[in-house]
Amino acid sequence: MSGARRNKNNRITFLIRAILITAAVLLSAVEIPSFFSGDDGFVMYAFDVGQADSFLFRLPGGENVLVDAGTKKSGATLVSRLRNLGVRKIDVLVATHPHEDHIGGMVDVINAFEVGRFWDSGYNHGSEAQRSMLDRLRNGHIPFERPKAGYGELFGDVAVEVLAPAQVIRGTASDANNNSIVLRVTYGGVSFLMTGDMERDERRTIARFPRASVLKMAHHGSSNGIDERMMREVSPDIVIFSYGKGNSYGHPHREAMSLVQKYKPHSFNTSDGEIKIKTDGRTVTVEQ
Q1: Kindly report the CA angle at 57 between 123 and 283, in degrees rounded to 5?
Q2: Can you list the alpha helix ranges (DSSP code H) found in the chain?
Q3: In percent, how much of the chain has pLDDT > 90?
Q4: What structural domains and CATH numbers belong to the chain?
């Protein structure tokens, strides 16, 4: 193990649990702060919504930030899960980009919960899923915002930064993907980099990626969602893949998995079930 990797691992202590049927496998153990007995503090959920994305951040101040909402098919299941978690209001609802596997469940979510604000990438895809979502937002008079690179906001002790897009990108292999909202969410010394389906062209607009404790692998672990420069600069301790088992795209691709094997972060994927990450800004627990 390199000195750089040892130093990075010393910055944050992890408790990682993998729960399979009735067996609980403890991979490493630390003293658990008292708030871990409940769901206070900072919690992130990576939902199992098949070949799609949906992530919930529950902040220490009680705010809920939902990033993407899976497919139309998974919308009702997502709403049920959010209700089971006690969600009553979504303070910020984020659509990273207008593909159906990220916004298909948005109408169900908007119908079920009070929504404080909506963040949109600003890319007009013109799909039925996007039209339905925008119609529901207009009918509900929900504040509509298009935050761009450089925008930041504080939610108590939690900082949310927008890293991309700086402006609407056109002429790429997938303009919708390359206009994904890319967020860095930071609480204390722990940060989460949320990448949507960002591909090569959007990566090039970010001069240097910030360090992040947790990296959501872009584009479901596609070969165009990550490169060595990004992995080296982010230097994550944990990576999350969001994809469905046996998907027709072959996700995650070999190129993404090779980088994980080289840099050796702890790796989790939603095809094995919902992932829950809790932190007090110093220590981190992962449960699946």
Answers
A1: 130
A2: 3-11, 75-84, 100-103, 106-112, 128-139, 200-203, 228-234, 254-263
A3: 85
A4: 3-287 (3.60.15.10)
